[in-house]
Specification:
Layout lengths: L8 H9 L3 H22 L3 H18 L10 H22 L18 H20 L2 H12 L4 H8 L3 H22 L3
Helix pairs in contact: 1-2, 2-3, 2-4, 2-6, 3-4, 4-7, 5-8, 6-7, 6-8, 7-8
Length: 187
């Protein structure tokens, strides 16, 4: 069994293109959580975020034989596929409005008492609602930077922008989010 931790992404992609499932599994291990956090920042249902995360990696796996290295990191491709998957999800859900069953809702057991859980849930909902009010590029830059944990350079590559443009966009997005949250603070 090979130690994949020291293998760079581009080498893993080459192994995966040759059919090495373990190499692709390492790519999944490296980026699935970041992709999931990106989806969670855009939607209310964590189950949908899990499904979309799996869909991203399945789509990329199926099309891996057509992948050509063009100087863009592989994770940037993953986030582009994730963004397209999110757009497709919203198109599908707009066509079929479905109610979520109470059985599908999950209540995390993180050791908090019910009052603390309610406060934490309320804060998360407030932040999610405020993020939804942001322009799409603001929402995306904040999701990639703070929820997916990408560096400014990684975010720039994933968004197809320069690092300087991402820093400016992030600054403006944070200011807009602060304004929205301050406006909602009185409610």
């Amino acid at each position: 069994m090979q130690d994949w931790l020291n293998v760079e992404d581009n080498q893993l992609v080459q192994f995966a293109r040759q059919g090495n499932v373990q190499a692709y599994g390492e790519i999944y291990n490296r980026y699935a959580d970041r992709i999931y956090r990106y989806f969670v920042s855009h939607m209310d249902n964590p189950h949908d975020a899990e499904d979309l995360t799996e869909e991203v990696f399945f789509r990329v796996w199926r099309s891996l034989s057509n992948y050509e290295e063009k100087g863009i990191p592989f994770y940037a491709l993953l986030f582009q596929v994730a963004r397209n998957g999110l757009i497709d999800f919203y198109r599908r859900s707009a066509q079929s409005k479905q109610l979520v069953s109470i059985d599908d809702l999950s209540i995390p057991d993180d050791g908090l008492d019910p009052g603390e859980m309610l406060l934490k849930s309320s804060r998360h909902k407030e932040l999610r609602d405020a993020m939804k009010e942001l322009r799409e590029d603001y929402h995306t830059v904040l999701s990639l930077r703070f929820l997916s944990g990408l560096s400014p350079d990684e975010t720039a590559k994933a968004m197809g922008r320069s690092s300087g443009a991402v820093r400016v966009l992030q600054h403006r997005a944070l200011a807009a989010l602060r304004d929205i949250l301050d406006g909602n603070a009185g409610y």
